[in-house]
Amino acid sequence: MKKYIRTVILLSYYKRIRDLREDSDKNQSDIAEELSMQLTQYGRYERGERELPLNIAVQLAKYYNVSIDYIAGISSGKQGGDTSLSPRECELISIFRALDEFEKGQVVERAKVLSGEHNKNSRG
Length: 124
Fold this sequence. Notes:
By secondary structure, this protein is mainly alpha-helical. It is built from eight helices and no strands. The protein has helices at residues 2-23, 28-34, 39-47, 54-64, 68-72, 87-97, 101-115, 117-123. The model is unreliable at 4-10 (pLDDT under 50).
């Protein structure tokens, strides 16, 4: 029974980290480099041949902007737990976080214009 539970947990995370990588249009060597490890070592995590250490799971969660719960297969939502953000909102946050500070400022200003907030603030 204990071995079965461990296998189910392994199957949960290795599929998730593979799917996250593929959704990001990255290959295994990109992620191995990001984690400062050998490609063969990272490949073993994705194939479920080795247990994923917590520190690596944390690095992957930060890299993909998802929760540890999602990687572990505990949560089906990428942000873990109950979240009021829609998938579209999560996508926008992920994109926003990848921008430099100047680009973030441009996005915020454009969002204000689109929402009409800019016009309200300039009148008042």
